[in-house]
Amino acid sequence: MESSASAQSARRLDAALESTAETQELMPRRRPTQERSQRKFDALLASSRDLLSDVGFESFTCEEVAARAELPIGTLYQFFANKYVIVCELNRQDLVGVQQELAEFNGEIPSLDWLRFLNKFVDHMAGMWMSDPSRREVWLAMQSTPSTRATGVIHEREFADQVAKMLGPLTPRTPRAKRNLMAQVLVHIVYSMLNFSVQDGQSHEDAVAELKQIMTAYLLVAEKQSRRSGASVVE
C-alpha cells in the first residue's frame, strides 16, 4: 500500500491544482505498453467512471478508485498523479470515442442531405449522454481547475480539427482559419448543450431539439456565405 507520506503528498498536489493558475495539459505519468499493465490501466479508468457517477467529483478520491479496481494505491499512482489527471484521461477517452464514431459518419459528407446527417449524429450523441451519466460528470469535473479546463480546451480543439475537415465540402470557399473557429464553436456548443440537456428538471428532448436548430441555422448561414464568397482559392 502507498505510504501515508505519499498519500499526503498527493493530497497536497490535489489542493494546489485547485488554486493554481498553471494551464499545462494534464496527462498520465505513463501509458501501459504491456497487456497486463493495460488491464490495470483500464480497470482504474472503469472504476473511476463508476465512482464519479456514484459520488460526484467532490467526493471522488484516488484511494476509493484503487479499492474499487482491487488494485494497490501505488499502482494507481504509477499511472496517475492525482484525481485531476484521471478525469482528464476520462475526458480524452470520451472524445476519442466520439471522434471514431464521427469518422464512421464521414462517408455521408459531403451530401445534399447533410441536415439529415446532422440530426442523426446529434441524436446519437444525445443518446450516449442519456445512457451514460458519467459523461456529464466528467464534463463537469473538467471545469474544476485551470489545468483541467485548459486540458479540456486542448481535447476539444483536437476534436474540432476533425470537424473542420468535415466542414470543408460544405464551406469550400471559407478561409481555413474561419472554418477552424467555426468547428471550435460547434464542438463547444454541442457539449454545453448536451450537459444542459441532462440537468435535473430539464426536458432532454426539448434541449436536443434546440441544439439541432442552433447548429442547423449556424451551418446554413456558413454554407450561404461560402457560396457567395468571391475567394478564388479553395482551402
Structure description:
The chain has 235 residues and is mainly α. The chain has ten helices and no strands. It is 72% helix and 0% strand. The chain is elongated. Mean pLDDT is 85; it is low at 231-235.
Number of strands: 0
Residue-averaged pLDDT, rounded? 85
Q: How would a crystallographer describe the biggest sheet?
A: none
- Decide which structural class fits the backbone: mainly alpha
- Poorly predicted regions are 231-235
Summarize the structure.
It holds the Pfam family TetR_N. This protein is mainly alpha-helical.
Protein traits:
single chain; 10 helices; elongated; disordered C terminus
Outline the fold blueprint.
Elements lengths: L3 H16 L15 H21 L6 H8 L3 H7 L3 H23 L8 H18 L2 H8 L4 H22 L8 H22 L6 H25 L7
Pfam families: TetR_C_22, TetR_N
Keywords: DNA-binding
Protein name: TetR/AcrR family transcriptional regulator
